[in-house]
Amino acid sequence: MKFLNGEWLVRDGFDVKYAANIYSADVEEKKLILYAPFQVIRNPGMTLDGGLLTIEVTSPRPDIITTRIINYRQDHSHDPQFTLNRTDPPVKIEEDEKGWTFTSGRLALKIAKGDAIDFEYEYEGRPLTKSAWRGKALVTDDGGRPHVVESLNLGVGEKIYGLGERFTNFVKNGQTVTIWNQDGGTGTAQAYKNVPFYMSNRGYGVFVDSTDKVEFEIGSDEVSKVQFSVPGQELTYSVIGGQDLKGVLNTYTDLTGKPPLVPDWSFGLWLSTSFTTDYDEKTVNEFVDGMAERDIPLSVFHFDCRWMDDLEWCNFEWKHSAFPDPEGMLARLHQKGLKVCAWINPYIAQKSKLFKEGAEKGYFIKRTDGQVWQWDKWQAGMAIVDFTNPEATAWYQSKLRHLLDQGVDCFKTDFGERIPTEGVVYHDGSDPVKMHNYYTLLYNKAVYDLLVEVKGADQAILFARSATVGGQCYPVHWGGDCTSNYPSMAESLRAGLSFGMSGFGYWSHDIAGFEDQPTPDIYKRWTQFGLLSSHSRYHGSSAYKVPWLYGDEAVEVTREFAKLKQRLVPYLIKMSHETHETGLPMMRAMVLEFPSDPTCEDIDTQYMLGDDILVAPIFNEDGTARFYVPDEGTGRPWANMLTGKTYEPGRWYQETYDYQTLPVLVRPGTDPLHV
Predict the structure, then answer these.
(1) Adjacent-strand bridge partners of 21
(2) Residue 215 appears among annotated catalytic residues
(3) 653: domain range?
(4) Angle 289-291-293 (CA atoms, 0-180°, nearest 5)?
(5) Each residue of 391-423: b (16+ CB within 10 Å) or e?
(6) Is CB count within 10 Å lower at the N or C end of the chain?
(7) Pick the catalytic residue: 120, 234, 317, 481?
(8) What band does 95 get if pLDDT is binned at 50, 70 and 90?
(9) Residue 276 counted as domain residue
(10) Of 29, 34, 74, 40, nearest in space to 54 by CA
């Protein structure tokens, strides 16, 4: 929320009250409580007719210090809450004439006494960031709504990453980011997956513990500060320390949840029917058999929306005219060695047979007058399942259980972003605004929990679009509705790298783009990128994505890179164990893997696939790649996995590649093809 008008003024209609200093403090068991009035109190009369912020400092785990800033204390029993793994760590609270020091593990917060606010964070004595003058504030906006605001200093050369799957620039400095899930495609500042967590190249992270509409100004209101705010009367955030960015991610995912292991078969190629295309069992077999005839290994076949009757999404019943024998069809696909994925969402069209049942039993989000909340965006008269109602969750799961019994192996959990906030009521009384982002967590958890129950934890996997904090526990996620062109391919990669810097371990995207018909050139270049991602799926809107529709060379490229990924599966399995144990993403930004090489801090057109493989996708029709080989200080060259050519570290290169090659470099001293 921007409220400043230059350095000294405040925007018209806004009122700002800054915490002036620490007036007094109390110490409870493992909690430091500070009282910060809006003016420095110099005589007893100044304690009258003025407010203050109560600041509570605690620690949920070692190396994490949590600050809760409170204006008025209010009841939050109806607010959805992120599940956090607290361990009640030992903390040390010390006071001397200069101020207080709160220490958890290797992270310390030093709070100064005197006539100014000064909160400084250090990790093993190394300064990280600080909240100083005009840092903590209560801001009333031009609509009369209160917000609690915090500002942390940005150092010279400091860069910020993360905040979910964002399609804007990878380095977030200069951006304003609103944490609000939206179905906006991949070409705007909107995002399907919003996570109020960022990391700094100075080796720390900040997590704002709120499901509400958190707003971040990363050097975009005051250029030397990261400012964040939440509506209401309090704000809770945690500073997370670490030796490096990997250590920060490990500690953050200790707190919010580690990505689980995914089935080995999920690393293979997934093929979709696409969204609005016509298809039946004959079409499915033509696709599956066509891949086999062309010697292209396929792992999963995905049935998108139209496996159900039109205008009835979702009824969870196979369209009889196209699929008269679903059990037999699924069994035959299994006999061909394939797994089966089916598209679903949490919306129930009025024409669906399930609408009356769900409405009568109170399983949908309601209006304040008790009627079912409905609208026509997406499906005519659709309702939304209320996952705060345990009976509604069990009902929804029962419909999916039948599909699993029929032979479906996993689900694509589409949507979950367009969740209403005005004039609606949830079963458990949750605040509708704070449920907007949180809804996706309940939705994906309900489906994932069922898969664990029926298939087992080692076989459970989703293909999800929306997410928030904790969603990393219910993988895999894909990048949403991209367009079939190079800018969209590049923005998809930027988003995936930001997503990985936000605690999510696995990520995919629609190979060759979702919207529009790709050119053969785009199809082949995106195929290279897609089959060198953690998870790989062909999908589209109105166009089939089988390779023979894009020429003989597209078939060859798909075959070669699908087989390459097949050879890499043991390596990918090894990397997935690392993801599960540490929270590190399988597709890593260069700065995450090489934090001591400053050139890597800004790179968003290449990435590391696990520890040992550097991938630089090609983003132009000329076949030209410009890529950087990182310098680890050893001086040893990297080698292209496909061509054998070697490259000295610490240099940029520009080369031209045919469709069978691209920069796929192997880290010195490693052999990912022979794990």
Answers:
(1) none
(2) no
(3) 587-666
(4) 65
(5) ebbebbbebbeebbebbbbbbbbbbbbbbbeee
(6) C
(7) 481
(8) very high
(9) yes
(10) 34
Residue length, the chain? 675
What's residue 74's pLDDT?
93
Please tell me what DSSP assigns to residue 67. E
DSSP secondary structure code for residue 293 in this structure: H
Gap between the Cα atoms of 664 and 103, Å rounded: 44
Q: How far apart are CA 420 and CA 423, in angstroms?
A: 8
DSSP letters for 192-242 = SBEEEEEEETTTEEEEE--SS--EEEESSSSTTEEEEEEESSEEEEEEEE-
Pairing of strands 269-272, 536-538: parallel
Structure tokens at 148: 């609690």
Q: Does 491 lie in the same domain as 549? A: yes
Domain end (from 547, 582, 617): 582
- How far is Cα 533 from Cα 479, in angstroms, rounded to an integer? 12
Confidence (pLDDT) at 14: 97
Residue 554 maps to a domain: yes
Q: What is the pLDDT of residues 173-195, one digit of tens each?
A: 999 999 999 999 999 999 999 99
The two structure tokens encoding residue 670: 């490693």
| CA pair distance 184, 143, nearest whole angstrom | 26
User: Using CA atoms, how far apart are residues 496 and 170, in angstroms rounded to an integer?
Assistant: 10
- The DSSP secondary structure of 360-412, one letter per residue, reads HTT-B-EETTSSBP-B-SSSTTBEEB-TTSHHHHHHHHHHHHHHHHHT--EEE
Q: Are 415 and 346 in contact (CB under 8 A)?
A: yes
Kindly list the distances between the CA atom of residue 437 and the CA atoms of 131, 206, 264, in Å, as whole numbers in the listed order.
Answer: 28, 19, 30
∠338-441-576 over CA atoms, to 5°? 50
Residues 576 and 602 in one domain: no
CATH label of the domain that carries residue 630 = 2.60.40.1180
Average pLDDT estimate for 353-369: 98
The residue among 548, 563, 582 that closes a domain is: 582
Q: Are residues 394 and 455 in the same domain?
A: yes
Say yes or no: 445 and 398 in one domain: yes
The reported pLDDT for the residue numbered 96 is: 97
Q: What is the mean pLDDT of the chain?
A: 97
The domain tally of the chain equals 2
End-to-end CA distance of the chain: 49
d(C-alpha 296, C-alpha 613), whole Å: 23
**Does 289 participate in catalysis according to the annotation?**
no
Indicate if 635 and 610 belong to the same structural domain. Answer: yes
Q: How far apart are CA 174 and CA 373, in angstroms?
A: 39
Three-state secondary structure readout of 309-334: CCCCCCCCCCCCCCCCCHHHHHHHHH
Q: Which residue has the higher pLDDT, 516 or 576?
A: 576
Residue 414 appears among annotated catalytic residues: yes
Rounded to whole angstroms, how far apart are CA atoms 118 and 126?
A: 17
Gap between the Cα atoms of 493 and 551, Å rounded: 25
pLDDT reported for residue 426: 98
Residues 525 and 452 grouped into a single domain: yes
Of the residues 63, 312, 414, 510, only one is catalytic, namely 414
Among candidate residues 500, 661, 552, 666, the one with its CA nearest the CA of residue 161: 500
H/E run at residue 471: none
Helix (H, G, I), strand (E, B) or coil at 664: strand
Q: Are 663 and 625 in contact (CB under 8 A)?
A: yes
Of 417, 521, 560, 597, catalytic: 417
Do 474 and 544 share a domain, yes or no?
A: yes
pLDDT the model gives residue 608: 98
Q: Please give the distance of CA 177 from its chain centroid, rounded to a whole number.
A: 14
> Could you tell me the pTM of the whole model?
0.97
